[in-house]
Write a structure and sequence with these properties.
Elements lengths: L1 H22 L8 H16 L7 H22 L13 H9 L23 H23 L2 H5 L1 H32 L16 H7 L4 H19 L4 H28 L6 H23 L6 H26 L2 H12 L5 H7 L1
Helix pairs in contact: 1-2, 1-3, 1-4, 2-3, 3-9, 3-10, 5-7, 5-13, 7-12, 9-10, 10-11, 11-12
């Protein structure tokens, strides 16, 4: 219960800070005046997650505030990003600033590009995935603690960690999207689009997996970096350099998220993982657009993409989590969070 009180205090403080941004900062002249007034809020949002001891709540709050909200606020300083479009509605401004969601744009160029994109109503589309993710978290953690998994940690734990992280991300994204959709009547951009159907790394990271991240990195990092690089090199090279820059920033922010989760000093393996993904994704684009490498059959591209993701993740992404015994931390924290549930339900979950 004390941790829930801490969560409530943190989010009340965050909402109060965002009201200040809405009423004061957004009305200042853009660029430097707004930036000076926003930097204390950025610093506050970096500190607030540390008030929460629960790994679940601290990690989710850090993702929402220290990463997503801070990038949106910095974009607002330059009249960019999603917030300037909703500066006349406090409810929409708060929801879009505090949660990892984005309103669907009316510009047809911004519509999600995959024709197979699911257009069912939000509740019918997300609640089944939410229920499945919740149902899989506990069995996945129990599997991590099994003798077989502990005897073959290097081979088995990456698979189980993939399932645990995917389920946890699904819970966070649905918990953010449903309130925003129901309360604000906003049509939201999809947050995940069948990542298992990705046929390239650029497709996976840019158009299918955890789309809150590329949606905010595109205007905050990729576009400014591409403009800056284009003044030094050709447009094709600038595109690749901007992609690498975006992956670098993503890697640094993931490293920060890992610190919030494990409380361990950074080893920079996550940063290296995302920089490597940037090199591989830009290499794909180079060979396809410049060299003219022929298109592979869809199934072959899909299997190669999944294989590269798994091998590189097993090499760089999962070792910090395995060394920190993240499954034990996660399971202990989950059990503590369920202390307030009825005993009969706890027996079923355990």
């Amino acid at each position: 219960m004390s941790d829930l009180n801490a969560v409530a205090r943190v989010w009340i403080s965050a909402i109060a800070a965002l009201i200040y941004v809405y009423t004061v900062v957004s009305r200042l002249p853009k660029n430097l005046p707004r930036l000076i007034a926003t930097l204390p809020i950025v610093y506050l949002f970096l500190l607030l997650p540390w008030q929460i001891s629960s790994v679940h709540f601290r990690g989710g709050t850090a993702f929402c505030l220290a990463w997503m909200s801070n990038f949106k606020l910095l974009l607002l300083c330059f009249d960019s990003g999603p917030l300037p479009l909703h500066r006349h509605s406090l409810r929409r401004f708060l929801a879009l600033a505090a949660l990892p969601v984005d309103a669907k744009q009316s510009d047809p160029r911004q519509v999600h590009p995959h024709p197979e994109n699911d257009r069912r109503p939000l509740l019918s589309r997300t609640l089944p995935r939410f229920a499945l993710a919740c149902a899989l978290i506990v069995p996945s953690l129990k599997a991590c603690a099994s003798d077989f998994a502990q005897r073959h940690r290097a081979a088995v734990l990456p698979v189980l960690y993939t399932l645990v992280l995917f389920c946890n991300l699904e819970v966070l994204l649905v918990a953010s999207a449903v309130p925003a959709r129901l309360l604000l009547a906003l049509e939201l951009q999809p947050q995940v689009d069948q990542p298992y159907r990705a046929t390239s790394l650029a497709d996976f990271w840019g158009r299918r997996w955890n789309l809150a991240v590329p949606t905010i990195l595109r205007p905050a990092v990729y576009c400014p970096a591409r403009w800056a690089w284009s003044r030094l090199v050709g447009s094709s090279t600038a595109r690749l350099a901007a992609m690498l820059t975006a992956f670098l920033v993503s890697g640094l922010m993931h490293e920060l998220m890992l610190y919030y989760l494990t409380l361990e000093p950074p080893t920079w393996e996550w940063a290296a993982f995302f920089v490597l993904q940037g090199f591989l994704a830009s290499g794909e684009l180079y060979f396809k657009s410049v060299v003219g490498f022929p298109e592979l059959p869809r199934l072959v591209s899909l299997l190669m993409t999944m294989a590269v993701l798994y091998v590189t993740a097993a090499w760089l992404f999962y070792p910090p989590l395995i060394r920190a015994s993240f499954d034990v931390i996660f399971a202990t924290d989950l059990r503590s969070a369920m202390d307030g549930l009825p005993t009969s339900l706890l027996q079923v979950l355990s």
